[in-house]
Amino acid sequence: MSLLTELHEEVANCQDCVLAQGRKNSVPGEGPENAEIVFIGEGPGFHEDQQGRPFVGAAGNLLEELLESIGLRREDVYICNVIKCRAPGNRDPLPEEIEACKKFLDRQVEIISPRMIVTLGRFSMERYFPGAKISQIHGQPRKIGGIIHYPMYHPAAALHQPKWRQVVKDDMSRIPQLLAQSDSIAEVDLPQDTEQLSLF
Fold this sequence. Notes:
CATH architecture: 3-Layer(aba) Sandwich
Structural class: alpha/beta
Strand content: 5-15%
Number of strands: 5
CATH class: Alpha Beta
CATH topology: Uracil-DNA Glycosylase, subunit E
């Protein structure tokens, strides 16, 4: 059994926060253990909860289109979320729910050891860019611990507000170039107090 498969089973059995009580399926993530790129969204929606897979609704369809535009399929990348169970009514995840899932997300990144992490939306962005505003830093890569961290708007934002669609497409189009030129991206230190930072 692979390390990711073991981790996925742990997620399926997790009872560390209230979201476990209302889920149909946990949604740990999917993709190859040797993926170069990890995409991290916010949390599962209705369709994800039903199927136990990330990004299978309308936002997932758009993500697949975006991947195709740079010559990738969803099978080539690892896709997951900050929280692994659906929040009631698709509300924003609470700080304690994010904290409960943090160990799983950290281990996913550790196991996969990707060259790039793409954060989709403000909740995954906050994990790596605490205190930043997505409108100000989207499309601006930083290298942390040897991994390129690249903040983007969530595909759902492009669906709800068409004005963001081209922005998301443009940011996605830069990924191949960033990977090719990763040595030229400056390394920055993650703030030491990241553990204590809250979303609110």
